[in-house]
Automatic annotation (TrEMBL):
A GO MF label: metal ion binding
Every Fe2OG dioxygenase domain range: 205-306
Pfam families, per database record: 2OG-FeII_Oxy, DIOX_N
Swiss-Prot/TrEMBL catalytic activity: jasmonate + 2-oxoglutarate + O2 = (1R,2R)-12-hydroxyjasmonate + succinate + CO2
Family membership noted in the UniProt record: Belongs to the iron/ascorbate-dependent oxidoreductase family.
Keywords: Dioxygenase, Iron, Jasmonic acid signaling pathway, Metal-binding, Oxidoreductase, Plant defense
EC number: 1.14.20.6
GO biological process: defense response; negative regulation of defense response to insect; regulation of defense response to fungus; regulation of jasmonic acid mediated signaling pathway
Name listed for the protein in its UniProt record: Flavonol synthase
UniProt xrefs under InterPro entries: DIOX_N (IPR026992), IPNS-like_FE2OG_OXY (IPR044861), IPNS-like_sf (IPR027443), Oxoglu/Fe-dep_dioxygenase_dom (IPR005123), Plant_2OG-oxidoreductases (IPR050295)
Top-level taxonomy: Eukaryota, Viridiplantae, Streptophyta, Embryophyta, Tracheophyta
Source organism (scientific name): Helianthus annuus (Common sunflower)
Length: 357
């Protein structure tokens, strides 16, 4: 299966639709009734777990064990959590988000220089998936590679604002460090060797890529979504949310929970590859993004992925007669192409891979 070199239809920038001031969104963005958001049903007292990572390294073994357990419960029961004291400077967290906001407010001429194609998705884009006539999401985005270094190309990163490349480099380095730290924690919590998951991801030769999401104001937010329901195909995702505008919703017990970000927190979620490696002890979870009639929203989703050509399968240590392997072996490249061709489709992608009983 090879990705086509061009989109099936002309690309329309959602930001341009928003700025046109029209009170009605085009039919291409109107979701079926069952997929539309309910904007007023979220219980105010429910949120994803908030975990202070300072407890991992403060020298107190009791606190460390308690923090490990918090992370374990979050991975098993939620698939999502947010972390504070993660080692990223507050100025970097705010600066990374705001410099991308500046990019999306550059002229269309500046942005169009980086228009992407479905072959690699790198650059400035406005749709996911290749189905002609598909219902689209109310968002634009920018996608770039950081690792492996052979894929990183600064010429494909925006040159405006002028400090963007420098900020993205520093932010990327810190996210990769955090990813390595958490994979070690996940390995320990699963009863595996400390470096098991990192090695299964490829050791130092992992994949890391960034998708910056721009959700323009929407005149009919009850009819559409900024990003359709899906689980993330990769290893794990680090989301830097917009602290001023809620948008991320996580599915839990057949209910959509709107995430309330903590100040300078990073949101972490389990991807499909960790669900496979853990033999579904950890589960990737459906999530989606709602949009706002009065405010734009910017978020940075950093994907920390296995090396693309390594076979991913359940860890043998987690496979027993009582808990047989649920998934066949597949490289991340094969799985990613499968996803990119079909676009966001809830949890059906990873569930369709399960071995027949």
């Amino acid at each position: 299966m090879v990705c086509p070199c061009d989109w099936p239809e002309p690309i329309v920038r959602v930001q341009s639709l928003s700025e046109s001031g029209k009170p009605i969104i085009p039919d291409r963005y109107i979701k079926p009734p069952l997929d539309r958001p309910s904007l007023d049903t979220n219980p105010l007292d429910i949120n994803i777990p908030l975990i202070d990572l300072a407890g991992l390294n403060n020298g107190d073994l009791t606190v460390r064990e308690a923090t490990l357990k918090e992370i374990s419960v979050a991975c098993r029961e939620w698939g999502f959590f947010q972390v504070i004291n993660h080692g990223l400077r507050p100025e970097l967290v705010d600066g990374a988000r705001e410099i991308w906001r500046e990019f999306f407010h550059e002229s269309m001429e500046v942005k169009q220089k980086y228009a992407n194609s479905p072959k690699t998705y790198e650059g400035y884009g406005s749709r996911l998936g290749l189905q002609k006539g598909a219902i689209l999401d109310w968002s634009d985005y920018y996608f770039l590679h950081y690792l492996p270094s052979s894929l990183k190309d600064h010429n494909k990163w925006p040159d405006k604002p002028t400090s963007l490349r420098e900020v993205v480099e520093e932010y990327s380095k810190e996210i990769v460090r955090l990813g390595r730290d958490l994979l070690e924690v996940f390995s320990i919590n699963l009863g595996l060797k400390d470096d098991y998951l990192q090695n299964k991801f490829g050791g130092d030769d992992i994949g890391a890529c960034l998708r910056v999401n721009f959700y323009p104001k929407c005149p009919q937010p009850d009819l559409t979504l900024g990003l359709s329901s899906h689980s993330d195909p990769g290893g794990m995702t680090f989301l830097l949310p917009d602290e001023d505008v809620s948008g991320l919703q996580v599915r839990r017990n057949e209910q959509w929970i709107t995430v309330k970000p903590a100040r300078h927190a990073i949101i972490v979620n389990i991807g499909d590859q960790l669900q496979v490696l853990s033999n579904a002890i950890y589960k990737s979870v459906e999530h989606r993004v709602i949009v706002n009639p009065d405010k734009e929203r910017v978020s940075l989703a950093y994907f920390y992925n296995p090396k693309s050509d390594l076979l991913i399968h359940p860890a043998p240590e987690l496979v027993t007669p009582e808990t047989p392997a649920l998934y066949p072996s597949m490289t991340f490249d094969e799985y990613r192409l499968f996803i990119r061709t079909r676009g966001p489709q809830g949890k059906s992608q990873v569930e369709s891979l399960k071995s027949p009983k």
